Amino acid sequence: MILNRSTLFSVRTLFLAFIQLPIIEYLDETYKMPRLLPDNPYQRYQARMISEIIASGIQPLQNISVLKRVGEDKKVEWAPVEKALEESAGHFCVGNQLSIADCCLIPQLYHARRWKIDLTKYLLIPSIEERLNSIEAFKVAHPNQQPDCPEKEKA
């Protein structure tokens, strides 16, 4: 990790940062903002567990080069996320506050839709997704809302 100071602001910037979960934890611990890791130790564990299931168990399988090697059937393994949510979910992935798990869930659901993965057998995943997609920060972060999104993909 290479830390530097921004030339415009007195805010630390992180360069060469490409591993999602440590970046989120670093920002959560460094800046005074709504926390993404719950204060309660057990809920913090749940948030990290769900994030790790998504980041290590689902995300790699939704990359085209990996799918070619492991097969189409591997791209649909969302049951561990649903099972974890049965223990932890409230309004969001872990209780009623946004967490690191919510930040991991939404991008992977976007990819699941691109790969036409059937999520109708799950109850909690789509209901949490719907609530998260109503939050402005998630709306503006959506890939279809980015300046470099191809016109044919904009919604």
From TrEMBL:
SUPFAM superfamilies: GST C-terminal domain-like. InterPro entries: Glutathione-S-Trfase_C-like (IPR010987), Glutathione-S-Trfase_C_sf (IPR036282), GST_C (IPR004046), GST_Zeta_C (IPR034330). One of its GO terms (biological process) is L-phenylalanine catabolic process. Pfam families: GST_C. GO terms for molecular function: glutathione transferase activity; maleylacetoacetate isomerase activity. Residues 40-151 form the GST C-terminal domain. GO terms for cellular component: mitochondrion. This is GST C-terminal domain-containing protein. The lineage of its organism: Eukaryota, Metazoa, Spiralia, Gnathifera, Rotifera. Belongs to the GST superfamily. Zeta family. Keywords: Signal. It comes from the Eukaryota. Residues 1-26 form the signal peptide. PROSITE patterns: GST_CTER.
